[in-house]
Design brief:
By secondary structure, this protein is an alpha+beta fold. The chain is built from six helices and nine strands; from the N terminus they run H-H-H-H-E-E-E-E-E-E-H-E-E-E-H. Strands 3, 4, 5, 7, 8 and 9 form a six-stranded antiparallel sheet that branches. Strand 7 and strand 8 form a beta hairpin.
Amino acid sequence: MHVSRLRSSGRTKPTLARIRVLTLSGLSRAGQLAAVASCEYKRNMRLFSNLLGKLVAWLANGQNATVVLVFITTWYVLLTRRMAKAAFRQTTAMLQPTLSLGIHYGKGHGDFAPEGHFTINNLGSQPVVLLDVRLRCLPMGGSPLEKTYGDDYIVSPHDVISREFSFRDELHPMMITTVAYSYQLLVVAADVGRQVVAEYELLPVIGMQMCRLKYPMTVRWKYVVRSLKWRYYEIHSLFKRKHV
């Protein structure tokens, strides 16, 4: 009877949204907000369930699952690589040799001063190993003169070593004055475990000291050849003992 009256009066059947509006109109303001929040939550949960079902159906395909696995593995490898780089930088900062170099010119006859001494100061908190120490004299218009000062020398923390040098015999025949030559001090140092190698360079003419984290190939080959020589002498002495 109620439906027939609605049809005879020309009114349409109330929709679900209209019913919700009529229902909410009888509630208080707090009740209306709670009802709206509940409806939104149910709608979001239905959307989430639909998306989850589609994702499960998409992963049911073997090829799609393989693509996802490759993506996750790649992301894990990149993350592990970043962590390894961060650990390496931290280790390098802890073990990196920190040196301060200095060259002090000696007083010769007149303006000819080919003598003096240089210093190597370990400013770090860890002992360092001097793998290679070279002092070069660079005469203007002439070939560089170089002298080496041993290797495998351990410098304790906050310790200073000093070595004298003299290029008098080499520079005297050239008749070169003090203003016509300069010096270059090269020091290759590493931590005791030789995990971090640094090359220091001092140019006293321009007052500049530079540092590079590198293992020079010449120094590397020097230790390789030395190791081979030790092995050779060891095997040679072993054979001599057997023949004796």
